[in-house]
Amino acid sequence: MARQKLPPTQTLTMKIDDVDVTAKPGQTIQDVARDHDIEIPGLCYIDGLTIWGACRLCLVEVEGMRKLLAACSTEVAEGMIVHTDTERLRRYRKMVIEMLFAERNHVCSVCVSNGHCDLQAMAVQLGVDHVHLPYMNPDVKVDSSHDRFRLDHNRCILCTRCVRVCGEIEGAATKGVGGRGINARIINDLNMPWGDSQTCTSCGKCVHICPTGALVEKGTAAAEMKKHRSFLPYLTVMRES
Amino acid sequence: MSSDTTPKPVTIATVWLDGCSGCHMSFLDMDERLIEIAPLIQIVHSPVVDTKQIPPGTDVGIIEGAISNEDDEAKAKKMRAACNFIVSLGDCAVTANVPSMRNVFDKQECFDRAYHENADLQPANPDVVVPPLLDKALAVHQVIDVDLYVPGCPPPADAIYYVLSELLAGRQPDPLQLTRFGK
């Protein structure tokens, strides 16, 4: 009897931080790491939204590659050897956090999101106790024109979670990014006051998915803005239904 | 214990630059733990003692507040020259915090608002007695080298106690275990 051919393999084998792991073709390094309880830091990645690769916190080292790769947007390959927590990565991640703090005016002590902020928490997790870069102190504005919500560009890190949840889950596509480079800003519709937007449904997903105090509910004082994130695990379901 | 075997107290100087004094209040909030620490340290210069000079060779210098005017700058430099180990205490010293909120404006705009638009009588820039304002409020490490950063607004008394205990024990503390920006 002739031997039957085995079906083509659907499982890749690779190493993350010296642990042998298995992966499916098409998964990203971030997906596989999470499947194996290996935590890679990140601020822009949200399960259920398109991958953006903006924050650069999830950069990892892959053996044989000279440049660092974003774990959220790099597909795995057979035999890949990944390091997620090296001295070089820790140094770069701290620098990323410092650049985020230096780029806008993050005055934690008076921020409504003080104590409930992913950027603050990430600074502690990565050991950022000061910012060695000069602060840019940009003159950026606060949009309080919406009845219920506020957009404070001083606290924005341009992760675009709000843009993606608005377009991909709510389907309103009110939020976008205007400007380029250091002048990039989150905008509403065609860069008009949020309160004048014809497309915003006031669902509030952008506010609660925002990692910092950039998108908040009005009527909150310092440290009072606690985001409601219970809907986040359902983003994929919402998208498919 | 005879006096020659008693360990020499660690000398500490503190200064209050552009801050609200909350970090010094938090220092005092160590409460009874101050009594525990008191025999081990000697405060040689501080807003809470009367000495006017910072003695050279002081072991630890603790700085509260941002550097906003020429007097702050001079005091920070004196601290660096006199102290072997400089601690930036609190968010104003570490990040320039609330004092830095004027940094998005031009210095003259700040003067116009404070001393002209909002002045009922004799509008004039403050140009006598008070030290000249710098263009921007700066974090302490933007002016002098800093050896340890203790963020917080203010850093909790527990964090200050931990930092001092570790320094007295000759260890390098990790303040982020107990405090963070904005805490």
Describe the protein:
The complex is a heterodimer of chains A (241) and B (183). With 241 residues, chain A is an alpha+beta fold. Chain A contains six helices and ten strands, in the order ββαβββααββαββαβα. Chain A has helices at residues 29-35, 87-103, 118-125, 161-170, 205-209, 235-240, and strands at residues 12-16, 19-23, 59-62, 69-70, 81-83, 142-143, 149-152, 175-178, 185-188, 215-217. Helices cover 29% and strands 21% of the residues of chain B. In chain B, strands 2-1-3-5-7 form a five-stranded parallel sheet, sandwiched between helices. A two-stranded antiparallel sheet of chain B has the order 4-6. Classes of the chains: A alpha+beta (241), B alpha/beta (183). Chains A and B meet through helix 3 of A and helix 4 of B.
Topology (elements, then pairings):
The complex is a heterodimer of chains A (241) and B (183).
Chain A: E1 12-16, E2 19-23, H1 29-35, E3 59-62, E4 69-70, E5 81-83, H2 87-103, H3 118-125, E6 142-143, E7 149-152, H4 161-170, E8 175-178, E9 185-188, H5 205-209, E10 215-217, H6 235-240
Parallel strand pairs in A: 1-5
Antiparallel strand pairs in A: 1-2, 3-4, 3-5, 6-7, 7-10, 8-9
Chain B: E1 10-16, H1 22-28, H2 33-37, E2 41-45, E3 58-64, E4 67-69, H3 70-82, E5 83-89, H4 91-95, H5 107-117, E6 133-138, E7 148-150, H6 157-168
Parallel strand pairs in B: 1-2, 1-3, 3-5, 5-7
Antiparallel strand pairs in B: 4-6
